[in-house]
Amino acid sequence: MITLAAVVGVGTCAVLGLLYVRFVMAVPGTVEVLERQLTKQDAVPAIRDEDGEAKLGESRFLAAYESMSYYAAPGPLPGVVCLVGKYPYDDEYDYWEACNGLGDGRDILVEVPDPDNRTVILVPDQFDHGPLERDGWVTLHRNLLVHPLGDTALDPAGPLIRSAGHGVSKASE
After folding, report:
1. By CB distance 3.0 to 4.6 Å, which of 21, 105, 109, 148 could disulfide with 27?
2. What would the pLDDT profile of 11-46 be if each residue is shown by its tens digit?
3. Of 117, 110, 121, the residue nearest 132 (C-alpha)
4. Residue 71: beta bridge partners?
5. Are 82 and 110 in contact (CB under 8 A)?
6. Cα separation of 53 and 101, whole Å?
7. CB-based contacts of 110: which residues, under 8 Å, 6+ apart?
8. What confidence score (pLDDT) does residue 64 get?
9. Per residue in 20-29, is it b (16+ CB within 10 Å) or e — as a string?
10. Could you tell me the pTM of the whole model?
11. pLDDT at 29
12. Measured between alpha carbons, how far is residue 142 from residues 57, 66, 135, 151, 170 in Å?
């Protein structure tokens, strides 16, 4: 009887420990794309690059979707990451940026609507894309997802997506 109680007690502690680690304990987030070597494609062609918080000179190209190009950039402080969206035209408002601190790797870092009212999110490397993809989100890059308008992005004849290191592909691939 004592042995059974000990086994049940140890088993209960193990299960509670696993639940704590899985659901309560933070998973440090990373955005490894910011660690790779800069390329010519990474340069954000922006007019007003000193106005914002994002360090545009250290940005990394993530993907292009329809008329927008998306970049990840370090923020003004360590542990801050920015999503930069580049419009296809050059004027006073040629790009936008949104920054947030890297926290738990399971959380969305930045969520913004793009000019065409699609929702775009920047996520850490550890983020689970599965639930969002089942809801119609399209992964453009490991760290970038977009929720397209209607079903056009899921259509095999849909828009082309350019992604860093992945060439050109159809949105449905």
Report:
1. 105
2. 564 554 454 445 554 577 899 999 999 998 988 876
3. 121
4. 61, 84
5. yes
6. 12
7. 81, 82, 83, 98, 99, 100, 121, 122
8. 93
9. eeeeeeeeeb
10. 0.71
11. 87
12. 21, 18, 17, 21, 16
